[in-house]
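Example record for the data management plan.
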Amino acid sequence: MKWVNLFKDWRIILMLSALIISIIAINPRFDTTGVLITSVSTPALNYIPTGVKMINLNGIAVNNLTDYDYALSTIKPGDSVTITYIGLDNNQVSTSYPFLAMEEDGETKIGLAVSTIPFSNLEFGLDLNGGTKVILKPEVEVTNEELTNIIGIIEQRLNVYGFKEIPINTLSDFSGNDYIKVELPSSVSVSKIEDLLQHEGVFEARIGNNTVFTGDDILTVCVTGVDCQLQIKAVQGGFIFQFELAISEEGAERFANKTSQLAMTGIGTNCYLNETINFYLDNEFLDGSDLKISCDLQGLPERNPIISGGGQTRDEVKEDMKKLQSMLQSKNLPVGLSIESVEVISPKLGQEFLQNILYVFLLAILGVDVLIAIKYKSFRIAIPIIIVTLSEIIITLGVATLFSWTFDLAAIAGLIASVGTGVDDQIVITDEVLNEDKKEELSFKQKVKNAFFIVFATFTTSIAVMIPLTQAGAGILKGFATTTIIAISVGVLITRPAYARILEIISKD
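Corresponding structural encoding:
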């Protein structure tokens, strides 16, 4: 009867509820046949959406990365390639139109990056999924606004070459140095990465088929509002942005000559010329750059034109403005960037890392639990500790999933370390409660209170140590520190109180 009442206790209900929510969030999957297409970098395959499952390559069944590597090894540069994949609806099976394989840096490439089919909603970093991580450092000190602007320009360049939604983040260290971390698919060669991130693109602004100015004609783009015009203001029906350009005299003359030949449509403030101005980088149209030209600019060699646009919300308008500013600066980064490091891990190697870590993780838990069983000579104590420890791990993973936290090697190391801390806390609680010398002197609640004083002291000390580590080494240890903080917080706030209640039942039974 006591064990039935256990499930009516709020501490147990809290732990079970958190456990159920975490399992739902993690969403474990058992069918992982095939490989996931994570990126498309060949224009011939732009119609293939990312996130679909490839099941066949040139007539060879692809059940995993090993099969994919084998199928890829049979293809030579210039060979015709066909791909069969399952659509996003998980039912439709599609076969791509044949395209030609290419050679890049002495290797055969088909313009795709793939990874294993995820077995859950957990997000893993490049060191486990495979890919290329590049750390860039500005050659001069930059402000946060300038750093954001540089990231926008890099995104524009990557988008032009087919790399959509590439993770780009800023890092910093205790010395005040700023870094930019770019994560690219493993299909991209190091030489191409250097070209994408450091080369000068050919930027053009066209009206129809006529180039009116190029990247060389753009002298400055206003991004700070200091000594130039930049504003976002509320108007009827939403918001508008305006920012100023400075272009060369030659570019202004070409713009004037072309616009003088255009017709006007509309009246008053809604009067625009009958053609738009579009931006291109390396002859590729930049999405979202189809801009109307005000009638006021017709035939004028304006050296400082105002780029404007609008939207429903301030955040939407601000995002559109930053995108256009990045486009106009795509030829040149405002500051030089040096590549500090390039780390390349194949998807297959990443999968092996993950499997090895899982084995080590399970062995560590098993070893700890065996020692606990030997220490207390009772499975009645060892089993609850095992259950609570596993629950703590699952809840931590669930929290990480809900907040889209990416697990890399450092984060998994933090999770393993937190398991040791969690077991240690449960041993402290168990020893305090089962201490025969204090059995007559103190009540159960007082013993638990004494144990939790030690647990909370350890918790606060650990938090104090981990917080500085989130910024150490340009963020390299952030995964370790953040995961440890999440795990020990879950333990102190959810699983430790539940274990104390379970132990109370055990000690009285």
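Summary line stored alongside the record: The chain has four domains: 2-28+346-508, 35-119, 131-200+336-344, 203-314.
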